[in-house]
Amino acid sequence: MDGWLPIVILLGLGLAFAAGNVLLSQFVGPRSPSPEKAAPYECGMPAVGDARERQSVRFYLVAMIFLLFDIEVAFLYPWAMALRDLRWAGYVQVLVFVLVLFTGYVYIWRKGALDWSSREE
User: Fold this and answer.
1) pLDDT at position 120, please?
2) pLDDT of the residue at 36
3) Which of 52, 64, 67, 97 is deepest in the core (most CB within 10 A)?
4) Residues 56 and 120: beta-carbon distance below 8 Å
5) Half-sphere exposure of 40 toward its Cβ, with a 13 Å CA cutoff?
6) Is the four-CA dihedral 84, 89, 91, 93 of positive or negative sign?
7) What ranges do the domains of the chain cover?
8) What is the crossing angle of helices 57-74 and 83-111, to 10°?
9) What confidence tens digit (pLDDT) does each residue in 75-101 have?
10) For 18-63, what is each residue's pLDDT tens digit?
């Protein structure tokens, strides 16, 4: 239990600090809310439209494609760490992997999946 005492103390201090800030904001915070103060702040611009407006499907398609290609990069890091042990066989395998990714990227680019702002659905 000797090793756990500093961790428990740190957690207790963190919780006390958080609770103290919440309680302090109740006493020091503003007391006179107005509609202008309660309005959401949108980068200095007045809010336009409804916040619950539907997004284009293309927006989500671009987001999923970004995640797909971004996650694939995470597979290259372990390969780079093990490159000396894998030798030429590992190099050829990752070369094929990158070529397949590049082919998929060119395919979605030609299909227009990355150009989600040009046309409306």
Assistant:
1) 52
2) 78
3) 97
4) yes
5) 6
6) negative
7) 5-111
8) 170
9) 888 888 998 898 999 899 999 999 998
10) 999 999 998 888 778 788 777 777 676 766 777 677 777 778 888 8
Query: Token pair of 65, please?
Result: 């494609």
* Strand-pair partners of 42: 45
Side-chain-side CA neighbours of 105 within 13 Å: the count stands at: 12
Q: Write phi, then psi, for 42 (nearest 5 degrees).
A: -115, 70
CATH 2.40.50.140 fits 5-111, yes or no: no
pLDDT at 42: 67
CA–CA dist 85, 91 (Å, integer): 10
Residue 12 C-beta-side C-alpha neighbours within 13 Å: 6
Q: What amino acid occupies position 25?
A: S
Longest Cα–Cα distance in the chain? 71
